[in-house]
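Incident log, support desk, overnight shift.

02:14 A customer reports that sequence design results differ from what the structure should imply. Their input is reproduced verbatim below. On-call engineer (initials T.W.) acknowledged and began investigating.
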């Protein structure tokens, strides 16, 4: 279980505490098909319409295929950003998969537009960085960000991510690659 809590500096609201909840193969499959009812039947927490919507579907399709091919990856891949206090799914976050042979993990996160600017992306990023720091096989954490996504860049920069290159993604276009040493973040 990944848990983190941070002050909501964007709106000066109370601290938010999130947990990254891992999903089952059945939940991934249902979300990939946009079937919220079936996804909720397979999920350990109630899911939202956003998570079953078009904005998330490609991620769930990839994760559904991934966990069928490699069931061990289910513990690493995208899960639900769960607001612990409000008992509410507010987005998705996780790694693209287990560490590669060099010890690199790539993270991704997206917050439901209805819950943005409340500290959830920061809390999810902190939870992912904390787990990476605790995992002996992880040496590097990577995030890729569209050049025009200034809020994501600013958040990553606050945690020491530095640019190491660029890549072209067939779905997302040009992405800037940022990395940070996993050991930079205390394992708590």
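02:41 Re-run completed on a clean worker. Output:
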């Amino acid at each position: 279980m990944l848990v983190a809590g941070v002050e909501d500096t964007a709106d000066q609201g109370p601290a938010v505490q999130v947990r990254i909840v891992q999903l089952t193969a059945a939940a991934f499959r249902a979300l990939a098909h946009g079937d919220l009812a079936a996804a909720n039947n397979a999920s350990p927490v109630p899911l939202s319409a956003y998570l079953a919507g078009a904005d998330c579907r490609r991620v769930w399709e990839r994760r559904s295929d991934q966990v069928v091919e490699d069931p061990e990856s289910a513990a690493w891949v995208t899960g639900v950003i769960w607001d612990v206090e409000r008992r509410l799914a507010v987005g998705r976050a996780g790694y693209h998969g287990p560490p590669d042979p060099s010890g690199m993990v790539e993270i991704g996160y997206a917050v439901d537009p209805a819950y943005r600017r409340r500290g959830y992306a920061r809390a999810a990023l902190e939870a992912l960085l904390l787990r990476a720091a605790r995992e002996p096989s992880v040496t590097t954490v990577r995030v890729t960000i569209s050049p025009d996504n200034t809020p994501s860049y600013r958040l990553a920069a606050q945690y020491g991510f530095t640019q190491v290159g660029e890549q072209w993604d067939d779905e997302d276009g040009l992405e800037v690659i940022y990395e940070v040493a996993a050991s930079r973040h205390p394992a708590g």
